[in-house]
Structures are given as structure tokens and as C-alpha cells.
Amino acid sequence: MNHSPNRPLRLVLDVDRHIDAAFEELIHAPWGCEVAGSIWQPAIDIYELNDAYVVEADLPGVLPERVEIAAVGRRLTLSGTRDTVTTGLSRTGRSLLLERRQGHFRRTIEFEQEVDSQHIEMQFDQGTLRIRVLKRNGQQT
């Protein structure tokens, strides 16, 4: 497995993050607020194997049935929802700090090669989702 980062892929992901941060800063920060339930993006790692791509996403508190994965051409889209978790404290006390994002999330990854939408495996392990999607036949590196 090659551990060196894929620069074009990294650039696409970085641009998405910068656009989201600029939008948040320009639209919401001047008013001193953040939109409740705003879109959050889980952190991901991406690996390339000879015959497949592997994506690992940090999704603590997300139920597997609340995650959707779609692959078309060279793109893989991971989306889902992390529901609000209420505890006895939140019902009787006052919230002082809420940093854990909730609500809908969506990440789209564009690979160098087309992927096979019929061969996608996913598994959850301790809050981490691992997705393995095969490359289309004849497109191994």
C-alpha cells in the first residue's frame, strides 16, 4: 500500500473545506452565530490498493442504518445523519458548550479511476466506518 498522499485528490478535499470555512466565516460569524444543525464533514483517510480504494471515516455516534454510500463513475459519496443525543442533563440543565456536530453530513470523493458501484463493502468498528470499493476491471495501478 502506498502511504504517500495523492496530491490532486487532497487538493479537491482541501478546497471543499476552505469553501465551507469561508462561507461560515462570511455569512454566520459577523452575526455572532452558527446555524443550528449546519452541515458537518467527518474526517476521512483515503488509501489506494491495486484493485480498490479504501476510505475510513470518523463517525462516532452515527448508526450504520443512517449512512448511505453511492458510487458513480469516479465519485464516491458518503452521506448520512448523526442524530441529537439527549441526556438527562440536557433536559434539566443549561448547555454551556456544544462542540459535537450533529445533523446531516455529505462527503464526495473523486478518485483517479472509475469504481465499481456493485462491489462496495462497508464495516463499522468503534465509531470508524471503513469503505472498500473495487476499481472497474482493467484499471489497476
Itemize the secondary structure elements and their pairings.
Layout: H1 7-28, E1 44-48, E2 52-58, E3 67-72, E4 75-82, H2 88-92, E5 103-110, E6 115-125, E7 128-135
Antiparallel strand pairs: 1-2, 2-7, 3-4, 4-5, 6-7
In words, what does this structure look like?
By secondary structure, this protein is α+β, with helices and mostly antiparallel strands. The protein has one domain: Immunoglobulin-like (Sandwich), CATH 2.60.40.790. 19% of the residues lie in helices and 38% in strands. 13% of the residues are buried.
- According to DSSP, the number of beta strands is 7
Q: What level of helicity do the residues show?
A: 10-25%
Through-space gap between termini: 11 Å
What fraction of residues sit in β-strands? 35-45%
The largest beta-sheet arranges its strands as 1-2-7-6
Rg on CA atoms, Å? 18 Å
Q: Based on the coordinates given, report the CATH architecture.
A: Sandwich
Largest sheet data: 4 strands, antiparallel
Mean pLDDT reading: 79
Count of distinct structural domains: 1
Number of helices: 2
- Reading the helices and strands in chain order gives HEEEEHEEE
CATH class, anyone? Answer: Mainly Beta
